[in-house]
Write the structure tokens for this entry.
Amino acid sequence: MNNGWIKTHRKFKEWEWYQDANTFRVFFNLLISANHEPKKWRGFDIGIGEVPTGRKKLSEELNLSEQNIRTALKHLELTNEITIKSHREFSIIKLNNWNQYQLTNQQTNQLTNQQPTNNQPTPNHTIRTKRIKELKNKEEEGKSKRFIPPSTEEVILLFLEKGSTSQEADNFWNFYESKGWMVGKNKMKSWKASVSVWIARNKDNLTTPNHDY
């Protein structure tokens, strides 16, 4: 797994997580660590483009906190870059587009001829669009019901839509999760409204909103 080389294309700079330093580092580490041929590891079959690892190991390799590793992996899962199969002491992370990253020039030309035209959505775009619609439908269904805490994916999506960062989204989720989604002595009524308050207060260098929503 540690021998040989990988190739990257200049278009890598256009990747949506390119400027997110932690996500980029985690992804590139997985890219250079992934199998280029099937192997056995501790009784498990590790396929092409797969890496047996874990948050603690990645944290030690990249000198990042486990929370930063967790956030980066959630980003990569959200955009379907990776799939994670969890086991008791480790995980097997699969790079979903490994074959596309490492094709030969001839194979790349063949793939280009088969790819959708510019006015057609790419598979990853279609998956993200479907996921966003599912999340929005879930929110609509829950409007008439009791308050349901949002998932980290929902919070990240809303923060990014409002021009904030995924790190702030994690800060928001962790803060209210630790408080049982209470605002003062009352149960939160609208987490979206609380996100807006959080972002507005963060711009004024305040990080702990206490408005009753």
In short: Strands lie at 39-41, 44-46, 50-53, 82-86, 91-95, 182-183, 186-187. The first strand starts at residue 39 and ends at 41. The two ends are 51 Å apart (CA to CA).
